[in-house]
Amino acid sequence: MRPYILNATDRIREIINQIKSERTLVARFALVEYRDYPLEENIFVTRVQSFTNAEAEMNGWLDQCLAQGGGDTPEAVADGLYDILNLSWDPQAVKICILIADAPPHGLHPIGDSFPSGSLLGMTQT
């Protein structure tokens, strides 16, 4: 999984560099990581890094991304999207969200899904 995360973070850095090179834009960046439900493990389901305009801070967050935990194929995608919707968005800004995923959310296909009812929102948030 590590090579995929490295590739994704490299693409995010390219997007940030491209946006920052456009001098007429005022840009802020946030990062919401999500995983699977690790009920038996002491790791996060979602990890939210709120908006910053500091490229170095965003790069530091990307450096910390790694794969850990999970037991089935689906992931806590709905939990990540929930946290994205609840960021401190500037109401006057153009908003862009880029979702990078490697698996579907819980609740779509009950076979092989440890959480066939879908998200555990509100039960495991960090």
UniProtKB/TrEMBL annotation:
Domain annotation Hemicentin-1-like von Willebrand factor A: ranges: 2-105
Sequence intervals crossing the membrane: none
InterPro entries the UniProt entry points to: HMCN1-like_VWA, Thr-specific_kinase-like, vWFA_dom_sf
Gene Ontology annotations for the cellular component aspect, listed alphabetically: cytoplasm
UniProt keyword Protein transport, yes or no: no
Keywords: Secreted, Signal
Signal peptide: none
Any Pfam family hit: VWA_4
Compartmental location: Secreted
A GO molecular function held by the record: protein serine/threonine kinase activity
Main localization (coarse): secreted
PANTHER family, A to Z: ALPHA-PROTEIN KINASE VWKA, DUF659 DOMAIN-CONTAINING PROTEIN
Name of the molecule in the record: Hemicentin-1-like von Willebrand factor A domain-containing protein
Organism: Rotaria socialis
